[in-house]
Amino acid sequence: MARNICGIIVGEALSGEEAGELAEKMKNCPYLVASGTTANMIYSVYIFPEEKKWWLNPEVNPKATGVEKA
């Protein structure tokens, strides 16, 4: 039986505008449950297959996700 994982990623963009743009880009992700922004921060909640749990470690290369810090 496949298992799912719930994860929250908090990222910091360069500006509030950039955070909004990133949230907009991710809105159609099939694993995204909810997202929102506050100033230059983006908050995202995901539920995805266990084999993709490495997604919860964006600090390895946060710029690959579009944020400065995660």
Task: Outline the structure in words.
By secondary structure, this protein is an alpha+beta fold. Helix content is 16%, strand content 36%. The chain has a 3-stranded antiparallel β-sheet with strand order 1-3-2. β2 and β3 form a beta hairpin. The longest helix has 11 residues. It is elongated and about 40 Å long. The N and C termini lie far apart (31 Å).
Q: How many beta-strand segments?
A: 3
Helical residue percent band: 10-25%
Mean pLDDT: 85
Write down the secondary-structure element order. Answer: EHEE
The largest pleated sheet is described as: 3 strands, antiparallel
General shape? elongated
In percent terms, what proportion of residues is strand?
35-45%
User: DSSP helix count?
Assistant: 1
The SS-based structural class is alpha+beta
Distance between the termini: 31 Å
Order of strands in the sheet with most strands: 1-3-2
User: Which segments are poorly predicted (pLDDT under 50) over 5 or more consecutive residues?
Assistant: none
Alpha carbon gyration radius: 12 Å
List the helices and strands and how they pair.
Blueprint: E1 4-12, H1 16-26, E2 32-38, E3 41-49
Antiparallel strand pairs: 1-3, 2-3
Distinctive features:
alpha+beta, 36% strand
Summarize the structure in short.
With 70 residues, the protein is of the alpha+beta class.
